[in-house]
Amino acid sequence: MSFLSVEHVHHTYFTKKTATTALEDIHFTSEEGEFISLLGPSGCGKTTLLSIIAGLFPPTEGRVSIEGKSVLDEASQQVGYMLQQDYLFPWKTIKENITLGLKLQGQLNPDSSQRVLDLLKEMGLAGVEDQYPKQLSGGMRQRVALVRTLSTNPKLLLLDEPFSALDFQTKLKLEDLVWETLKSFKKTAVLVTHDIGEAIAMSDTIYLLSSNPGKIHKIFHIPEQLKELKPFHARQHSDYSNLFQEIWKELENLETKA
């Protein structure tokens, strides 16, 4: 049994006058510890699919499960969601922000609180726990958001363009940090991105979606020699450039047909 199963998912948005199919027959599986990316042109349904995987709403047809349990049931509590914006509460301290999930789930105690504070230190943020979000840079805030996402020890992490609002240097540093953190915790992750380079550097598998409606157009399996490298170093490998060009051409063809 696969860790994550997306089984023939269709989704249609209905209004009083129209019905728009966003996703059609999306089907894939992922093993525990695998990092996959969803890549494709605007409007191909990437974020809709991520929301369905998160259990935020059911698909029109199909099923998503984690270890055989539907994400619409108790499995949804095993999912962590990290977005483009950090959505930290400005009136709460960093410590209060990163322990909020534990508090809401009734898991906040001295041991769990210390574990999250230790993770904050591992992220290079020692000493900021009593500060407020406005006192931190954008990159620091995203690291805090990652700690908050990991605080409840979710089995699956969903990343919706978490680095797109950052400057390029900070983005590259955070790619490495997130990649290393997820590998060390053996977390399974699904990344939505428009960035081909980011998808190649961070992923084990890339699903390229076409649009109108969103379908899996092509699957790219990242070469082993790239998967073993940190994202920053993967970007400098010759196989990275070759794969980048291949995916670029596929995307261009999709956008031409759109």
Description of the structure:
The protein is an alpha/beta fold. It has a single domain, classed as P-loop containing nucleotide triphosphate hydrolases (Rossmann fold). Helix content is 38%, strand content 25%. The chain has 10 helices and 10 strands. The strands form 2 sheets. The chain has a 6-stranded mixed sheet, sandwiched between helices. Strands 2-1-4-5 form a 4-stranded antiparallel sheet, with helices on one face. Helix 5 packs parallel to helix 6 and helix 7 packs across helix 10.
Write the layout of secondary structure elements.
Elements: E1 4-14, E2 19-30, E3 35-39, H1 46-54, E4 61-66, E5 69-70, E6 79-82, H2 94-98, H3 100-104, H4 110-122, H5 138-150, E7 156-160, H6 168-184, E8 188-193, H7 196-202, E9 205-210, E10 215-221, H8 224-227, H9 231-234, H10 238-257
Parallel strand pairs: 3-8, 3-9, 6-7, 7-8
Antiparallel strand pairs: 1-2, 1-4, 4-5, 9-10
Helix pairs in contact: 5-6, 7-10
Order of helices and strands: EEEHEEEHHHHEHEHEEHHH
The total domain count is: 1
Sheet/helix structural class? alpha/beta
- CATH architecture field: 3-Layer(aba) Sandwich
Mean pLDDT: 90
GO molecular function, one term: ATP binding
Keywords: ATP-binding, Nucleotide-binding, Transport
Organism: Bacillus oleivorans
Protein name: NitT/TauT family transport system ATP-binding protein
